[in-house]
Amino acid sequence: MNPEARRIQGIYLALTLGNTLATSFIWGINTLFLLDAGLTNLEAFAANAFFMAGMVVFEVPTGVVADSWGRRASFLLGTVTLAGATLLYYLMWQVSAPFWWWAAVSVLLGLGFTFFSGAVEAWLVDALHFSGYDGALETVLGRGQMVSGIAMLAGSVAGGVIAQATDLGVPFLLRAAVLAAMFLVAFRLMHDVGFTPERSARPLQATRAILAASVDNGLRNPPVRYIMLAAPFTVGAGFYVFYALQPYLLELYGDPRAYSIAGLAAALVAGADILGGWLAPRVRGMVRKRTTVVLAATITSALILVALLATPAFWPGLVLLALWAVVAAAGTPVRKAYLNAMVPSRQRATVLSFDSLMGSSGGVVAQPLLGRTADLYGYPASLAVAGTIQLMAAPLIFLSRRCCPAADTATGEEAAQGPASAA
User: Quick one: pLDDT at residue 413?
Assistant: First the structure.
């Protein structure tokens, strides 16, 4: 890695660290926060579904913003929007707002996250290519996931401990404050490199052109299409499991106010991200095809969720959940590298945002469905159903593999720069 590529990687890791730290302050206690505000399980997970719906609605428009106005502009807009929506969440908790208020602001939270999704990853891949980086994408993405895991570990544990020492609202105030600081950091350090935004005097016409090109390189490209179609099953199940871990572990532990244990749930996933990010390039080096790793991670993690149905004790449940998180985390950088290697630079942010949209659409359906399952049959049953849903992604990943794209076996510079048409 040359000095310029190392500098780009450093900025990427700094943005990842600060952003994840800010957002993770509430991850360990978010479900408990919603329940404390007077929502039922169904309403709490329905609020999460509205968050996912916001991501579905705004993913592609914000991806177009990133491709037409710049990835830096998209990141800055994300910090402002997410900080404002977080403060509204705190105010609604203070006044015990009715469900539909939570639904509306959850959509606004979704908008904030869509400004980040696709934009940061697209910025990194283009900047690395411009700097002359000739290594594998899995290495840098894996490091990013490790840094994200460290930040999530610190933020989620701190959020749980702070909530127990003060109240459930303070972590939300901390999130807003750190996001404000990240706006200043990104404004100073993040500049579009290796990519020129296509600003036009006719923004609607430019938007249509970007969308058309993104569809051509996304849904109309069979190996990309199948990977995208698998996302609703994996992401929908994964989002539910992450948020259900908090009340599930408290239930197994036997103390509904042990908020530090709820923080442990998010810390568990954070630790898995660290280990999974370290494992990803090593596991990828052991096999010829990236889809081998993605398929194995999808099937194995889904079967672990099903096994939780027969796990009534705290420690066995904790071990299985840790294993689920590590397996899922090890497959994530490989999937990202696989997708990036099939997407041209000029539409990269929009296509990645569309991929995120597909995943979020699964969350819109899965969250209330699985939340209702938890109300009726308990958390273990809902986690087993989540695993069954995730298994439905495996045939679609296999279909992508059968298309035999060059990205499946690509390494080094070829993987870093994507298709030749990106030039």
Answer: 43
pLDDT for 213 equals: 67
Sort residue 221 into left (φ over 0), alpha (ψ -120 to 50) or beta.
beta
165 burial (CB, 10 Å; 0-12 / 13-18 / 19+) is: exposed
What pLDDT score does 359 carry? 86
Q: Which residues contact 98 (CB under 8 A, 6 or more apart)?
A: none
Are 125 and 70 within 8 A, CB to CB?
A: no
The crossing angle, in degrees rounded to 10, of helices 314-340 and 137-165 is 140
Q: Is this prediction's pTM over 0.90?
A: no
Q: What element of type H or E holds 34?
A: helix 30-36
Within 136-257, residue ranges assigned H as helices are: 137-165, 170-189, 203-217, 222-253
For residue 309, CA distances in Å to 304, 306, 386, 388 come to 9, 6, 11, 12
List, for residues 278-306, the tens digit of each pLDDT value.
Answer: 999 999 989 999 999 999 999 999 999 99
The rounded distance, in Å, linking the Cα atoms of 241 and 254 is: 19
| Cα gap 350→355, rounded to integer Å | 9
What token pair was written down for 263? 């923080």
Tokens of 290: 């990236």
Whether the Cβ atoms of residue 344 and residue 125 lie closer than 8 Å to each other:
no
Tokens of 361: 């659409």
